Structure formats: structure tokens, C-alpha cells
Sequence to fold (244 residues):
Amino acid sequence: MFFKKKKLAADRKVPTHIAIVMDGNGRWAKKRGLPRTAGHKVGAETFRTIANYAKSIGLKYLTVYTFSTENWKRSDEEVNAIMELLEKYLREIIRDMDKNQVRFCFFGDMSRLSPQLQEEARIASEESAKYSGVQVNFCLNYGGRAEILRAAQSFARECMDGTRKPEELTEEAFSDLMYSAGVPDPELIIRPGGEKRTSNFLLWQSAYAEYYFTDVLWPDFGPEELEKAIASYSGRNRRFGGAE
Ligand code: IPE
Ligand code: IPE
Ligand code: MG
Fold:
């Protein structure tokens, strides 16, 4: 059994970029008779474990859906608790940066977040830019449609002021206007929590991503679950529209 496990691990293809919809915190808490915020707290710890594990297996990019443009619909109490958790988490990231050697980036409209959160995100991304370990992209107040609109508006503005022409808008040029500019598209997108939808996550970048869905709730998602997703991905035949 042990041998089989090791062999499987050696055969697998670790993608360059994995993206995760960290879903299921609320249901995890509800199942235990706890407030939803307790699920978010444990979910943050799960993220820490997965990020460390991702680094240990040589993943280059890990993008996580942390808070969507739609999540503002939740109660003030829940939104505030999530924001407080994020503030605390970012403070810890800044404190432990040298030890972890992880690069942090933020995708999303940060202007709606508290000044403190914005400042912490700025420090975390600027000061971690020098590290060469895994790059973690936090999607915060992020929506795939909002990201595409923002890119389109920015290109339209450049056309209006005469610095660019409409026919210069290639797929590559448009990709460079996304929050993810310079980051290769994710090969694998994982959604724990049982739902089988994208919920507005990486709409542009996911064109040829492989999806992996599992009923496991995010707070229960450990390295073993990540390995299951990688094993599933490894066995797939990616044709990109071509033929065998
Ligand atoms: C994901 O877990 C965390 C955020 C969206 C912020 P949920 O809070 O959506 O958990 P469920 O889906 O209600 O279980
Ligand atoms: C997606 O989860 C957003 C994050 C995990 C941050 P949601 O819980 O918001 O998605 P829906 O509402 O089930 O589509
Ligand atoms: Mg959810």
C-alpha cells in the first residue's frame, strides 16, 4: 500500500498553477452547531496548510478565491468577521514573510476594502516580491466579470486617447490587462464544498482549465485531497481542441 502510494506520487504531474474556490466554511460550521464565522476561521488554517504543502511539492502559482464581488450580500456580521480575519491573517503573513518565502499578490478591487486591509495587502505584496517560492494570489473583492470589464475599459481608454488601436487587442494583450497579468492560466481549478459552478471565478483564465469538484468542505480539505485532485488531473487527456 505504501509503495503504491509512493509510486502514484512519483508519476503524477504537478500543474504549474492551481486555483481553488475555498467553499464550504459555513456548512462545515453549521454541521457542528457553530456560527458560520467559526468555519471561516478553520478555513483560514486550511489555507495555511495547503499553501505550505503547495510550496513543498513545487507548485509555482496558487490562486485562491477568498471573497467575491457577490459576497457583500451576506450579513454585516459575517462580512465584518471575514474582514477581521483577513486583517489578522495578513498581519501574520507580513510577520512570517522571511520564514515562508512566499510571494503574495492580490486580484480584485481593493478600493472597497478597509484602509487597513488595503495597506496590509500593499505591504504584503511589495515586500514579498523578492521571494522565489510559490506565488499565492488572493482573490479579494474579486469577480471574473468585473475583471473583464475593467480590462475592457482600460483598453477602451487607451484607444480614446490614441495610444492604442482596437485591432491591437489580441488574446495576449487582453490577458495582460487582467489582474493575473504575467501569471500563466491555471491548469487545474478545484472546488470543494459540493457545488458545481464557477461562481464568477477566473472567467477569462479558465478557458482550458481542468476542473475538479469534491463534496469535501473547505475546512476539511487537506494535502491528501489536493493530491487526489492532482492525481485526477494527471490522468486527463488535454487536447485543447486538437485531435489524437
Ligand atoms: C466560502 O465558504 C467562504 C466565502 C465565500 C467567504 P462559504 O461561507 O460560502 O460556505 P458555505 O458555502 O455557506 O458552506
Ligand atoms: C464562491 O463561493 C466565493 C468564494 C469561495 C470566495 P460562494 O459560496 O460565494 O458561491 P455560491 O454563492 O455558492 O455560488
Ligand atoms: Mg459557499
